[in-house]
Amino acid sequence: MGEGRGIAAALLSSGLGGSAIVATRHLSGAVDPAVLGCLRFAVGAAILLPIALLARGPWPARRDWPGTILLGLVLFGIFPWLFNAALALTSAARGALALSTLPPLTMAMAALLGVERPSLRKSAGVAMAMTGVALALAADLGHSPAGAWRGDLLMIAAALVMAFYNVWSRPYIRRSAVLPHTAVGMAAGAGFLFLAGVPAGGLPPLPAADWLAVAYLGVVCAALVFWLWAFALAHATPTRVAITVCANPVTASILGLVLLGEPVGIVLVAGLAAVGGGIALASRD
């Protein structure tokens, strides 16, 4: 079976993660980026910590706690802050495209640090998937808010932060169970974002629909998505996991069709096909 389980988990994580872009974009004008991240990951940690305790799997060893907490601050503190701030400045389509720089950034970082050797097949798969993302989103990129480039740069910075996590977290995850590693890191990130969000004045009053979006971000886009991502990193190489982030626009396109009635043109279909082909190519041994 090889890395198949890890790639399947990463695909599901990325597919569900695409909906996080839509939900975050919906809330970005009403909630400070640090406060929104704190809410999202506090809910996720509140779900994962009891499950991890009940599962009785191995927790991080004492020597791994500093590294586990640092990685948690990176993925669940710095990354969501940049991610949420980016979507307050750019469109969901441009944000998804900027986040899709994650595969080449992960591949380059893994190669520089000697964690994973690049291959022609993986490089071709990454290039094909990113081309597919560009095609899939081309129709939307012309309708962007003023100054959207600032949000694009923030999202690329978020992708670089996540690339660091992808490369450095694997040995920590493999030395403990996936659930405890994820739960500890998520709790650390939520605490960091709470401290960062205090100067923002706390949480403004929100309508019921916005609270549903917050709950969805916490339950699905924090607890489930990042547990799947950590599971994937434990069973597959960083580049093969990272390339699945190109599935985010697929989810966004399907949601746009089903929920918003947005048309699906031939360019979009071709782009999504290229995304699938690139992921399949890079995932082959």
UniProtKB/TrEMBL annotation:
Keywords: Membrane, Transmembrane, Transmembrane helix. This is Drug/metabolite transporter (DMT)-like permease. InterPro entries: AA-Vitamin_Transporters, EamA_dom, EmrE-like. It is a multi-pass membrane protein. The chain crosses the membrane at residues 34-55, 67-89, 95-115, 124-142, 148-167, 179-199, 211-234. GO terms for cellular component: membrane. Residues 5-137, 150-283 form the EamA domain. It is found in: Membrane. The keyword Lipid biosynthesis does not apply. PANTHER family: EAMA DOMAIN-CONTAINING PROTEIN, INNER MEMBRANE TRANSPORTER. Belongs to the EamA transporter family. It comes from the Bacteria.
